[in-house]
Amino acid sequence: MDSIDWKKRHIVKTSTEIHCSDEIADPKVWRPKIEPWLSAIFQSEHLSLLVGSGLTNAIAHMSKIEAQGMGRLEMANEAYKDKIKRSSEKSASAMERGEANLEDDFRVALELLRGYEILEDESSVNLKAELNSALNGFIKSILKTEKAFKDQLLSTNVTTQETAINAFGYLQAFLLSFSSRAASRERLNLFTTNYDRFLEYGCDEVGVILLDRFKGKLQPIFRNTRLELDYHYNPPGIRGEPRYVEGVGRITKLHGSIDWNFKGHGKIIRALLPFGATDTHPDIPENATEHVVIYPNSAKDIETAYYPYSELFRDFSTAICRPNSAVVTYGYGFGDSHINRIIADMFTIPSTHLVIIAFSDPGDRIQRFLRDKNKAQFTLLLGSHFGDLEQLVDNYLPKSAIDRLTIKMRDLIGKRDNFQPEININTENVTPFLQPPIIQDDDLPF
Question: What count of other Cβ atoms lies within 10 Å of the Cβ of residue 211?
Answer without folding.
Answer: 19
